[in-house]
Design a protein that fits this description.
The strands form 2 sheets. Strands 7, 8, 9, 10, 11, 12, 13, 14, 15 and 16 form a 10-stranded mixed sheet that branches. Strands 1, 2, 3, 4, 5 and 6 form a 6-stranded mixed sheet that branches. The longest helix has 21 residues, at 237-257. It contains 18 helices and 16 strands. Helix content is 37%, strand content 18%. It is α+β, with helices and mostly antiparallel strands. The chain starts with 9 loop residues before the first helix and ends in a 6-residue tail after the last helix.
Length: 513
């Protein structure tokens, strides 16, 4: 356990172990050392948000029992409309490696949990179970491990304050103080997420900025909105799901602490950058990244996985773009995809293969000739990035769908390789009308996404990974948006009316997931 770094996990520092080795006795040690008053269980509900159960600790026996066996919860309330109240009891059982000291409640030791049925199995309808089962299927059928990282984009809304050093519209990317206003708040978010998960790669300002939000919603009316991003390091994809859900919880709570509002909603203002949730993936064999071959080119395995994602792409919007405003973001020339294709370093494509330090390394030696000793990265860093999802994503289901897509590509090599060859593009597709017209389109509404999901439900229900009830729940959720004619309806309105109706659509789901 390396304890020399300030942002090390506080629980790890107390017990002298990495989190993967935590035992019940270690957690009891933390409770005693920090005079913990309560254990708080967290688990993800059907709405994709973290739930919690606060359990006071009066004695050692009580703490041991709760850590050993978990507690009961009402599954019919947590999964309303999916689990019948007549058979609603589930256990919530803690994951010891997830233990953290709650930064918003000094007397609490917190843990993420899994849902367990009365028979002692992971609850099949739980979102994290679906992701776990998809990951197990991927590993079994491919012999590989799928790692992922997310890019959490969000708007931080605050009172306008002074007018010094105003930010420029659509010029916020990687801005710094004094033009970036929320640096101290972002620092706190990054510090806490790093201490709790150890998985933050970096944070920066994003493109979007609004001086004063025009809205009928009191929560955000007149607020200054600054777009930000926190990007993560690759982790096993099941861990990625927990980390992203937990990080959204931290971001929202830090924002509230500072009198601000954090929203992951896909669109906040017309003409302002939307809020994506890009997902990077990498394939590993025995811990090593295999995204590139010995020749430095993209490996056959990587191309097959990309082909699988292209095959699943239109139905993945059902999990990655779940509110009407998502389809106000997916428009041409906004670095948000509308067509199914992939490319290298190309932000107009749905799947992008970014720079990955594969043909160049030790770059700092170019600028620092005094540096003699080199640096070897034994793992490799190449990824490929799915750019269609946004902040309305149901995270565990989206990642489970991505896992199923990658597995399909690797287990259907001829089909996926042919599709990858067909859908590879070069250059900005929005400037090549002939090419654009040849590429399959992503859905243009929640209703269309639901229809595609129902047509392709076998892709998700195969091997029993996605229960039928989950597919039907998501389709019903999407159909309830009734947005199949949204774009045409908005186009037919006078300019002022269109802008007002657009804002109503954008702001009605500030905190959906």
């Amino acid at each position: 356990m390396d304890s020399s770094f300030t942002l090390a996990n506080p629980v790890s520092l107390i017990v002298g172990k990495d989190k993967e080795s935590f035992t019940r006795e270690d957690l009891i040690k933390v409770i005693e050392a920090r005079a913990i008053e309560r254990i708080t269980f967290h688990y993800t509900g059907l709405d994709g948000k973290i739930k919690e159960l606060k359990i006071p600790v009066a004695n050692r026996y009580q703490a041991e029992r709760i850590l050993a066996d978990g507690e009961r919860a009402d599954g019919s309330s947590l999964f309303k409309g999916m689990v019948d109240s007549a058979v609603s009891d589930v256990y919530v059982v803690p994951l010891y490696h997830s233990a953290f000291l709650n930064p918003f409640d000094a007397g609490s030791l917190d843990l993420m949990c899994r849902y367990v049925t009365p028979e002692g199995n992971l609850a099949p309808f739980a979102l994290d179970t679906i992701l776990t089962n998809a990951s197990d299927l991927f590993r079994k059928n491919t012999g590989l491990d799928l790692y992922a990282l997310g890019e959490l984009e969000f708007f931080l809304l605050s009172d306008p304050g002074d007018n010094l050093y105003p930010a420029e519209k659509q010029r916020g990317y990687h801005s710094s103080a004094p033009f970036m206003k929320s640096g101290e708040i972002v620092n706190e978010m990054v510090r806490l997420i790093t201490q709790l998960t150890g998985t933050v790669k970096y944070a920066h300002g994003e493109v979007g900025y609004v001086d004063s939000v025009r809205s009928d919603i009191p929560e955000i009316m007149g607020k200054r909105a600054e777009q930000l991003e926190i990007e993560f390091l690759p982790t096993p994809i099941v861990e990625t799901g927990d980390n992203l859900v937990l990080s959204r919880w931290i971001i929202r709570n830090v924002a509230r602490k500072h009198g601000c509002v954090a929203t992951f909603t896909p669109k906040i203002e017309e003409g302002i950058a939307g809020t994506g949730l890009h997902v990077h993936m990498e394939l590993r064999r025995e811990g090593r990244n295999i995204m590139r071959g010995d020749d430095g080119e993209l490996s056959p395995e990587a191309r097959k996985a990309i082909g699988g994602l292209c095959h699943y792409a239109d139905s993945l919007t059902a999990f990655g773009n779940t509110v009407s405003s998502a389809y106000l973001r997916l428009v041409p020339n906004q670095e948000a995809p509308t067509r199914i294709c992939w490319s290298d370093r190309n932000r107009s494509a749905m799947i992008r293969v970014p720079l990955g330090w594969t043909k160049q390394d030790n770059l700092a030696k170019l600028l620092n000739p005094q540096q003699v000793e080199g640096f070897q990265d034994p793992q490799g860093r190449q990824t490929f990035e799915l750019r269609s999802p946004d902040g309305s994503a149901i995270l565990h289901l989206l990642l489970a769908g991505i896992t199923m897509a990658a597995e399909y590509g690797l287990t259907h090599p001829e089909e996926s390789q042919a599709l990858a060859d067909k859908l590879y593009v070069v250059g900005n597709i929005f400037k090549n009308r002939e090419l654009l017209d040849k590429l399959p389109a992503l859905p243009k509404s929640c209703v269309e996404s639901a229809q595609v999901l129902m047509r392709k439900r076998d892709l998700y229900e195969r091997n029993g990974i996605f229960p039928a009830s989950v597919i039907e729940y998501v389709a019903k959720l999407l159909m309830a948006e009734k947005d199949e004619n949204m774009n045409q309806t908005l186009m037919d309105l006078p300019a002022d009316d269109r802008l007002h109706e657009t804002r109503k659509i954008m702001h009605k789901d500030l905190h959906r997931h």
